Amino acid sequence: MLVKCYGAAVQGIDATTITIEVNISLGIRFFMVGLPDSAVRESHERILSAFTYNGYKFPKQQVIVNLSPADIRKEGASYDLPLAMAMMAANNQISNERLGTYVIMGELSLDGTVLPIRGALPIAIRAKQDGFKGLILPKQNASEAAVVDGIDIIGIENIADVVQFLDGKKDIAPTQAAIHTYWKEYTESIDLDFAEVKGQENVKRAMEVAAAGGHNLILVGPPGAGKSMLAKRLPSILPPLSLQEALETTKIHSVAGTIGKSTSLICQRPFRSPHHTISDVALVGGGSYPQPGEMSLAHNGVLFLDELPEFKRSVLEVMRQPLEDRKITIARSSMTVEFPTSFMLVASMNPCPCGYYNHPQRPCVCAPGAVQKYLNKISGPLLDRIDIQVEIVPVPFEHLSNQSPNESSASIRKRVIQARLIQQERYKNEKDIHCNAQMNTRLLNKYVVLDNACLTLLHRAVDQLQLSARAYDRILKVSRTIADLDASQTIQSRHIAEAIGYRNLDRENWGE
Predict the structure, then answer these.
(1) Preceding omega of 59 cis (within 30 degrees of 0)
(2) For residue 503, what pLDDT band results from cuts at 50, 70 and 90?
(3) What is the rounded average pLDDT of the residues 170-194?
(4) Distance between CA 268 and CA 238 in Å, rounded?
């Protein structure tokens, strides 16, 4: 008897519906075709054990399994459950009336317990797009998939639940996601607050500008000056995720398997801080079957690289194209996948090997030329892509001992949100442009119009600092953001001057 049921294969952050055909006929052999990997082929033993443990019969005839379309690689143990259900239906152990109306995914343990899978959210989205009534998957993944409206999400714990549900002997209520309650609880919560930071008002201002325009940022200063402390508080002043951004972010983390069991939707902007020993593949994504890397996991959030010069040169250089394109394309012989990488890069570093170059009290003990050599670990093209470069100095004692309250993240965030609303209105007709940092040359010419005073100031800065054309564009983008924070339609000299001040670490004049 020939029976069809449906699963899904995840490629990149999107899913494709897979038709699972099982035909039982005369014979004694078991065949599986359709480009399955080793984990899929091993499902035979897991299904056999689960059947035996739960009192079901494994077919004693020839079983042919076809996974269609055959040119898509099927990976992982999440095909165990649909294969088992198709075999039971083909062997007349369950009714196949409901089988074709649901997408089924889940890994089986030897006792028939259904284990969680990766990619539940993109699978649910694809099931809805393809017109299925519902999705049957492990209970641990149900809240994640339930974010998708208009489709029944049936969370199950073991193989017996699925058999009884498909036979109509047991009703399982679809999982409901309380998105609005969950959304409000997490989007308004702030774990780390700028009110806890003493002093560093100029750095806080630079981070406010960076958050308002989505600009990349680097902090350079001696040990203990507060670089990491400030960077970790940047997400607290970023605008809340929109629902579309939250879905995009959740899809990526769903594919990577980094979503918690109780999490249905990622409502806070990601903050990723990989160690400097990370490999280039772990940063950009990849592998034999490409998975998202740290840059994609930071999508719509912050990627923080602490001690930037300690990262391998090859790791830093692979970031250059994704920083510009805001996506990464990973090509393999059998497939090409694309992951989004629209994140804010925040980096920190010491100014020199000893850490005390330009320190107001402690002398630098580095050898001549060591400062420039240390900075040379970071290429000029990468530094050019960092819009805001801030030098940070230690906090004086009078600021550390000051008990007066500092401005909170909530207060700063209100100004950032107002600036983002201005940009949202400005770019409402532009595709994939949401903030000033994403402006291209056409938009720069349209929205950054300078008067003679601004042009004179900018001309002097380009000559004295020997800025590149890319650095020139970055100054224009940052000045547009500063003007938005002032709610100013036009860019004025003070906006240009502040933006130029954020380029004081360019290679040509640093460390001389």
Answers:
(1) no
(2) confident
(3) 75
(4) 10
Cα angle 177, 434, 431; round to 5: 95
Dihedral sign of CA atoms 264, 267, 268, 273 in order: positive
Computed on alpha carbons and rounded to an integer, the radius of gyration of the chain in Å comes to 28
Instruction: Of 45, 38, 35, give the one whose Cα is nearest residue 66.
Output: 35
The whole-angstrom distance between residue 140's C-alpha and the CA centroid of its chain comes to 21
Q: Among residues 34, 300, 310, 263, which one has the least CA distance to residue 140?
A: 263
Query: How far out from the chain centre does Cα 258 lie?
Result: 11
Task: State residue 230's pLDDT score.
Answer: 92
Share of the chain above pLDDT 90, in %: 63
Enumerate the H helices of 292-396 as residue ranges.
294-297, 313-317, 320-325, 370-375, 380-384
Closest by alpha carbon to 408, among 205, 267, 237?
A: 237
Domains of the chain: 2-166 (3.30.230.10), 192-509 (3.40.50.300)
Cα–Cα distances in angstroms (integers) from residue 407 to residues 141, 234, 310, 404, in the given order? 40, 14, 33, 10
Alpha carbons within 13 A on the beta-carbon side of 308: 29
The Cα 124–Cα 135 span in angstroms is 7
